[in-house]
Specification:
The chain is of the alpha+beta class. It folds into three domains: 4-73, no CATH class; 74-108, no CATH class; 111-148, no CATH class. It is 46% helix and 11% strand. The protein has a four-stranded antiparallel sheet, with no helix packed on it. Strand 3 and strand 4 form a beta hairpin. Helix 1 crosses helix 2 (15-24) and helix 3 (40-49) runs antiparallel to helix 4.
């Protein structure tokens, strides 16, 4: 059996278009001919439950190893990012993280934790802001270090 791309090129069709035709006809899903796209996860978890490794189960279902890892962690893809099992939704285009699951207790960073004492060689949030202010004033690195006492 040839791949979809090779067959489409041999017939003079666009490979992306033929792939969509095959999916709509129910002939191709998750890389396996005749597979139901909604049974991919169920088959994957059945294989994992019977002792197959992630890589083996992913190959048999026809999904990428990283997709299988997302399934194991309860992560699902969204249009521009990932939705995690703890309620976080990360949008990779904007870099924003939002929390959707209001019923679960999700630990969010608090400002008082940001102000906690750090190891002396690390820079605190207040020092970072001070450095930013001094750089905007045009101070040199030595002047900034002296102002911070470092």
């Amino acid at each position: 059996m040839q791949s979809n791309t090779a067959t489409a090129r041999a017939l003079g069709f666009d490979p992306a278009g033929t792939y969509n035709w095959l999916r709509q006809a129910g002939l191709r899903a998750y890389g396996r001919p005749g597979a139901d796209p909604h049974q991919g996860r169920e088959l994957y978890f059945a294989l994992r439950g019977s002792g197959h490794s992630r890589r083996e189960a992913a190959a048999q279902v026809g999904v990428h190893y990283r997709t299988a890892g997302d399934w194991d962690r309860g992560t699902r893809r969204t249009t521009h990012g990932r939705a995690f099992a703890d309620g976080r939704v990360v949008d990779y285009t904007t870099g924003m993280t939002t929390y959707t699951d209001q019923t679960a207790i999700v630990e969010r960073p608090r400002f008082d934790r940001l102000q906690q004492g750090l190891h002396p060689r690390l820079i605190s949030l207040a020092e970072r802001e001070r450095i930013s202010d001094l750089m905007r004033e045009g101070r040199s690195v030595r002047q900034i270090a002296q102002a911070l006492g470092r």
